[in-house]
Amino acid sequence: YILRVARNQRRENGAATVPRYRLPTALLLLLVGLAALIAGGQALVEGGVWIARHFGVPDWLIGVSVVAIGTSAPEIAASVVAALRGRGDIAVGNVLGSNVFNVLMVLGCGATVRPLAAGVVIHGDLLLLAGISLFALLFLGVRQRMPRSAGGLLLAAYVGYIMVRVIHPG
Predict the structure, then answer these.
(1) What's the whole-model pTM score?
(2) What are the φ/ψ torsions at residue 134 (nearest 5 degrees)?
(3) DSSP alpha helices (H): ranges in the chain?
(4) Distances (CA, A) of 89 to 5, 26, 75, 103, 118
């Protein structure tokens, strides 16, 4: 999907135009799009979890890879489209809003239902998250932009993180 959007965006000439809809049509499109994102995310996670379990992959690795990617797919798509349309502010706002929501609401709701326990494994992950957040903050907060090279470094860091977690799970 992301590659198709990128390819179609490159074919367009000139600046991206914002389609004009009546409010009821825009609300309907928003709801249909949200439903499709939710259904697609669920299908991606369920299929990935089944495949991972079939091959004996541990639950924590499913969580930090398959589930994380599946639940982030809508944010990835929205950020790529926003970046292609020259709306970096929306892409960055999407990431910040999503992460604030995940930490405060998702963890908050889960802990309200039942206290959450995290193994020692998670502590190193939290330190890594803090370091990567600082890296992103240096670019976005100081330079007011994130170049492609920094984006590539973030992608490589995620791949490296997964590789390290597979090789050294504890």
Answers:
(1) 0.62
(2) -65, -40
(3) 2-11, 23-54, 59-62, 68-84, 88-101, 107-113, 120-137, 148-167
(4) 19, 21, 14, 21, 34
